[in-house]
Amino acid sequence: xxxxxxxxxxxxxxxxxxxxxxxxxxxxxxxxxxxxxxxxxxxxxxxxxxxxxxxxxxxxxxxxxxxxxxxxxxxxxxxxxxxxxxxxxxxxxxxxxxxxxxxxxxxxxxxxxxxxxxxxxxxxxxxxxxxxxxxxx
Length: 137
Known about the structure:
This is Organic hydroperoxide resistance protein. InterPro entries: KH_dom-like_a/b, OHR, OsmC/Ohr_fam, OsmC/Ohrsf. Belongs to the OsmC/Ohr family. This protein is an alpha+beta fold. It has three helices and six strands, in the order βββαββααβ. Strands 1-2-3 form a three-stranded antiparallel sheet, with no helix packed on it. It has a three-stranded mixed sheet with strand order 4-5-6, with helices on one face. A hairpin with a 2-residue loop joins β4 (76-86) and β5. α1 (45-67) crosses α2. The longest helix has 23 residues, at 45-67. The protein is globular and about 45 Å long. The termini are far apart.
């Protein structure tokens, strides 16, 4: 792999601490979600993963859309990240809900979303490791 960019972040005190990027642009408190017995005051790793995956997938969709000469600039991607028990540990599952702009034919939209799933670094990192469902809305 030829590195194009390296992001660096440090988290302290796990889910009840802080996460800070090396450039200081992200500096936020972390906390357990209310659903897991926390106070929910800060964000949590699943929310951060969901935001990153949604943004990255949207960019990948833009790349394949431009290559196909289809305007997907008004598309929206929502990532739902589920944390669950798996054996003695925990696991993640993701649903990506892609809302395509009006006027894109269903078959064309499906192809673009599937191509984006092949291009997106998050999709490539998770493939074979966690279930990722694609839903076109």
